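Pipeline run #58 for the internal structure catalog. This entry was flagged by the ingest filter as a single-chain record with no existing model, so it goes straight to prediction. Upstream metadata was stripped on purpose; only the residue string is passed forward. Reviewer on rotation: M.T. Logging verbosity set to normal.
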Amino acid sequence: MIRIALLSLAAFSLWGAEDPWLKVEQLKSRQELKIYKRGTAEPVVATFDEANDDRVIVVVKNKQIAIPKDEVERIDARPLGKGERTVTRETTAKTVDPDYSPHPARGADVPGTSYGSSVSFGTSKPGFEVVYRRVQAKN
């Protein structure tokens, strides 16, 4: 009985490994995608809605569109989740040497130091991962 279950599991795993489109169907709603279509250099940047055996349905600029599976060369997806919060602090100090040339209008220059600092807050999104790549037909 256990042997049959293991064989079934192995067969299912192999079937899933042979069908790269299965990963597209398992994406979560609202994931950010880059879809590379046949014959185009720039990807379609979209939000995932759903997928089936024939097409992927996405939202592009508040419009829902369906892209047929046979037009898709590659799909990259950004994992869902919160990005890392980042805090960047920068402090600079600059010392200015005095100008020893005579200035009739003012007194002697003294060395000076100027200080500057900045803080920026932000979040970094995780990178895109390839979830689908068209399998080339074997001749």
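catalog note: The radius of gyration is 29 Å.
catalog note: The helical segments are 2-18, 21-25.
status: ready for reviewer M.T.
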